[in-house]
Amino acid sequence: MKRTIAVICGGDSSEHDVSLRSGAGVYSFFNKDNYDVFLVDIKGLDWHVNLPDGTTSAIDRNDFSFLLDGKKKTFDYAYITIHGTPGENGLLQGYFDLLHLPYSTSGVLVESMTFDKFVLNNYLRQFGVSVAESILVRHGEENNITEEDILSTVGFPCFVKPAADGSSFGVSKVKAFPQLASALDKAFCEHGCAMIESYLEGTEISQGVYKTREKSVVLPATEVVTSNEFFDYDAKYNGQVQEITPARLAPETAERVAKLTSAIYDILHANGIIRIDYIIGKNADGTDKINMLEINTTPGMTPTSFIPQQVRAAGLKMEDVLADIVENQFS
Question: Which of 151, 153, 271, 280 has a C-alpha 20 to 30 A away from that of 36?
């Protein structure tokens, strides 16, 4: 019998609509001859399944079931494509753990840790991963930050971003101290903690990876080229960017990045597809320096997103990649 798959999208963050597009992408990639696939849209307490006839059916949160043609139907697997809460911070994962329903992402601890950029950076730094210097600022404590604090720790220019949640909203590049207050206000609109992070100069790349019991697949990296100040929402979703896959890296650097991507996956004991973003800068001796920016555990999955691009560049098919990920938890 076919497995019944819930492709879960939406969520409660500013990236709700972006997640809907990712959900539609994942839905389109699944081989319907092998799986019964349903889109599940979550927002607040409105959880519903989009049915083939264009109607919806409410999710019973007691067991994550719904009614189809008057009969109760349950899922065998949850493919989570929510960007932000509750699908990228461990909340939904904990719910599915209680229901004993397998899902596509890492577990509660990894999801909550990777969701918090400040925590993640300080954790991975202990394993020798190079990350930007940063200052954590909680809402209500922003007036305690002085210009000297910035200059001595991160310098100018710097980035201000929500410490948790995605990286498409609430991010500002700050070039001078008078700009800091408004940048923090913008970040606090997304989350109660903000992070002031040092500016890393170099080439931005992003690389996907997934592993199963049988294989380790590190996908070709994508180079991000934009004329914007940084890779912001407009660059990501309004076409103000050039994405080059595979990235134009020296072969030795490409190999180092791939090894680091694989190592970080193992350090975290990750599950499913994750995408790691880097800045490739320069050491004092002129060699390439690999700086990790952040980790996306529910990366964008529209046909033009990084992961599908990288899968195509690797000569693979998305339907086979998704099947690998799903079946890995049943074999």
Answer: 271
User: Cα–Cα distance between 124 and 32 in angstroms, integer?
Assistant: 39
- Exposure string of 156-179, with b = 16+ CB inside 10 Å and e = fewer, is bebbbbbbbbbbbbbbbbbeebeb
**60-85 tens-digit pLDDT:** 999 999 999 999 999 999 999 999 99
Taking phi over 0 as left and psi of -120 to 50 as alpha, with beta for the rest, 272 belongs to: left
Structure tokens at 294: 């952040």
What is the spatial distance between Cα 122 and Cα 134, in angstroms, rounded to a whole number? 9
Check the CA dihedral 248-252-255-257 and report its sign: negative
Instruction: Let me know how long the chain is.
Output: 331
Rounded Cα distance between 271 and 325, Å, is 8
Angle of the 306-313 helix axis to the 318-327 helix axis, nearest 10: 100
Determine if the peptide bond prior to 162 is cis (ω within 30°): no
Find tokens 């839905």 and name the residue: 27
**CA–CA distance, 319 with 33 (Å, rounded to integer):** 11
Quote the CA–CA distance of 171 and 169 in Å, as a whole number.
6
Whether the Cβ atoms of residue 96 and residue 78 lie closer than 8 Å to each other: yes
pTM of the model: 0.91
Output the CA–CA distances (angstroms, integers) from residue 100 to 38, 64, 162, 286, in the order listed.
19, 11, 32, 51
Q: How far apart are CA 302 and CA 38, in angstroms?
A: 17
Confidence band for 323, pLDDT divided at 50, 70 and 90: very high
Q: Do the strands 3-10 and 77-80 form a parallel or antiparallel pair, or are they unpaired?
A: parallel
